[in-house]
Amino acid sequence: MSVLKRIFAVVLILSMCSAFAACGSTDEATPSSEPSKSSDAASPSNSDNKDKKPIYVGFVQVGAESDWRMANTKSMQQTFSEANGYKFEMVDCQQKTDKQITAIRDFIQKGVDYIVLAPNTEAGWETVLGEAKDAGIPVIIVDRMIKTSDESLFTAWVGSNFKKEGEDAVTALENALKEKGVAADKPLNIVTLQGTMGSSAQIGRTDGFAEKMKAHSNWKLLDKQSGDFTQEKGQEVMESFLKSYKDINVVIAENDNMAFGAVKAIKAAGKTCGPKGDITIISFDAVNAAFKAMIAGDIDVDVECNPLHGPRVEEIIKALESGQKVDKIAYVKEGTFYAKDAASTISSRAY
Ligand code: GZL
CA nearest 189: which of 252, 136, 144? Predict the structure, then answer.
């Protein structure tokens, strides 16, 4: 080989080596308990946003059991879009906690940057969240809570105060009865359609209502049974209650879809419900269809449970990405809505 060719070959090899060295320094958004350093100024190729690797978010969703859940899913999908700089994968776990545990392990294998978990029930999370912690993947919990003594297993939780919601339902019932002109000392027979047993939404609402209703010695809880937060099961349970008890005065439905099922069962039994009906219905969630049911005169009051967690979770992730500390626990603000106000309020509702 001539001297000139040798010099050219050496120059070519040296320039190729320096090119490979530059590629190796691109910062991969690797999953870690530390915020990813994708915006690290040291790697000039990342200084421009569009070159940033999308943040990989794995969302372990309860299921698609209710209007509330669909609104929750929509909020997460709209927030963690590709256009917003995310790679977003969601697993619908069909209200099965074991499917959620499997989904978390899959996301660990995939090396996501963040795991967002909407836990179906409170128990059974310590082993799998320990695996996520060992893999250095932050876990953000939304909506319901997990039962654990080790708070290092999750980075942050954002959701509702379910016990307060249950207590608010007692106040809602007191006001609904006043609205109807029912004497405060009239004996009342109450049945409760409970949510998914063992979920913090069910536990909080059931316990919160039961504790605060003790102030009313004339209120009697005839029965409570789970309708699993679905309309179909809510209707089935209400049908069985109507067969067992001839004098039900109040239904506490731990979500709107079970309330919709209860309304169908009550009407099919030839009875009436709502502000002008025999049976008072207090529900939870306050989804759009429930406002329509209040306007139609079927439901008396709705205790809100806000599903729009997407922006709240994004705020947490952005803070973590920039190395800021985040609150371990954050409750969302919620209100109570009465049938008489439903028509004037529905247009302002976000879900
Ligand atoms: C409450 C949420 C509950 C809703 C139901 O935060 O977990 O699950 O009340 C949903 O509608 O199914």
Answer: 252
pLDDT in the model for residue 52: 83
Contacts of 228 (CB under 8 A, 6+ apart): 65, 95, 195, 196, 197
pTM: 0.86
Question: What gap in Å lies between CA 115 and CA 137, rounded to an integer?
Answer: 7
Give the ligand 1 atom nearest the CA of 229. 12
Cα 321 to averaged position of ligand 1 atoms, centre (Å): 29
pLDDT tens, 139-164? Answer: 999 999 999 999 999 999 999 999 99
Q: Which residues line ligand 1 (CB under 6 A)?
A: 65-66, 68-69, 143-144, 160, 201, 229, 255, 284-285, 305
Calculate how far, in angstroms, residue 68's C-alpha sits from the geometric centre of ligand 1.
6
Comparing CA positions, the residue from 333, 330, 340 lying closest to residue 302 is 340
Cα of 38 from ligand 1 centre, angstroms: 35
Residue 47 has which token pair? 């200084």
Q: What sections of 196-300 are H helices per DSSP?
A: 200-213, 231-244, 256-268, 288-295
Distance of CA 233 to the CA centre of its chain: 21
Domains of the chain: 54-158+308-331 (3.40.50.2300), 162-305 (3.40.50.2300)
Helix, strand or coil, per DSSP, at residue 204: helix
Strands (E), the chain: 55-61, 86-92, 114-117, 139-143, 156-159, 188-194, 219-226, 250-253, 280-285, 301-304, 329-331, 336-338
How long is the chain?
Answer: 351
Compute the distance from residue 7 Cα to the ligand 1 centre, in Å: 72
The average pLDDT across 92-102 equals 98
Closest Cα to atom 1 of ligand 1: 201
